[in-house]
Amino acid sequence: MKRRNLIKALGAATVATTLSACKPKEQNCGTTQSSNKIHKWKMVTAWPKNFPALGTGANFLAEKITTMSGGRITVSVYGGGELVPPLEVFDAVSAGTAQMGHAGSYYWKGKVPEAQFFGAVPFGMNAQEMNAWLYHGGGLELWTQLYSKHNLVPFPVGQTGVQMGGWFNKEIYSMADIQGLVMRIPGLGGEVFKRAGGSPKLLPGSELFTSLQTGNIDATEWVGPYNDLAFGFYQAAKYYYYPGWHEPTACLEGIVNKEAYDALEDDLKEIIKTACMSANQNMLSDFTAKNKTALDTLINKHNVQLRQYPKEVLEEFKKHAQIVFDEVGNTSKMGKRIYNSYKTFATQTKSWLDISEKAYFEAR
Ligand code: CA
Asked: 185: CA distance to ligand 1 center in Å?
């Protein structure tokens, strides 16, 4: 009896402490945990609505958030151009026009050059390594810090895995073939391409097919077979190059307006984080599962010619990449911190992956 009373008393004391420590406006207040407030969110994206893997990945994230929160957050997804143009997602979420966005951080290189290290780094880390850096190597903390002054909270939402090198209408034999070539290629890869003599352009995915067909661009990269088949690039270009030296993965981003995020109860914040993590893995699995079948269709049904970049060309790109990183990594104090963190982690993980993944790939 005594023991039971003691437990009861302790329980009551705990409840009392929790309640007394709980000021009404505090986020951690127990009484706000299961609030019935409904958060109606809009998610703007940089992709055509329902586009394979990218658009459906955004849908997956929206559905997960709505389901996991029991409808306390509802998320409506908008394709690029429906609410705001694809390349204005960052500004729209920052300003609160939409509470959430899905895009790629390298699209904002004119505004936040340092953000490119969170998107895709030529000859840099692959999907496995990027996730390790972001979740367990301090990467996401730096990203969060970088975006906080833009009123945004970032999350990794979708890895593409190693991309393809792009679509061309002529074969690439040497660096001479790169000179003056107008190619859609974003981010750091685009800058490297420029230094190597090419002429990079940044266009949203939805404009690529027409641009390629009308000769507005000579070449384009997008993602990989699964996505590129869906856009029908094989109707406008003949040669399909690999590997995607410029994007060993693209880490796509889910961005949340900071005020909208801060207004959430703690359990809902956790749901956002967890749903983003789940969508991040889901997209990589989706691409990995579908790319080979799509590549077979491109080659066997549409007569696409698969080509590998000459070693000489890759070596030349790699040389320029190092110079570009040093410059971008020195644009600001924060850029330096991000670049140093990325570089240190990439060096370490490479030496581990050399004796694990790489040795295994060679052995199997
Ligand atoms: Ca790409």
From this structure: 7
Which H or E run contains 212? helix 208-214
Ligand 1 centroid to residue 222 C-alpha, Å: 4
pTM of the predicted model, to two decimals?
Answer: 0.88
Query: Which residues 6+ apart lie within 8 Å of 26 measured at CB?
Result: 32
User: Can you give the residue range of the structural domain that contains 45?
Assistant: 39-159+249-288
- Which are the contacts of 168, defined by CB distance < 8 A and separation ≥ 6? 218, 219, 237, 238, 239, 241
What's 116's domain CATH number? 3.40.190.170
99 within 8 A of 43, measured Cβ to Cβ: yes
Domain count for the chain, please give it: 1
Query: Residue 195 falls within a domain, yes or no?
Result: no
- Per residue in 299-322, pLDDT (tens digit) is 999 999 999 999 999 999 999 999
Q: Is residue 114 part of a domain?
A: yes
Could you tell me the distance, in angstroms and rounded to a whole number, from the CA of residue 183 to the centre of ligand 1?
Answer: 12
Q: Within a domain: residue 352? A: no
Query: Is residue 198 one of the residues assigned to a domain?
Result: no
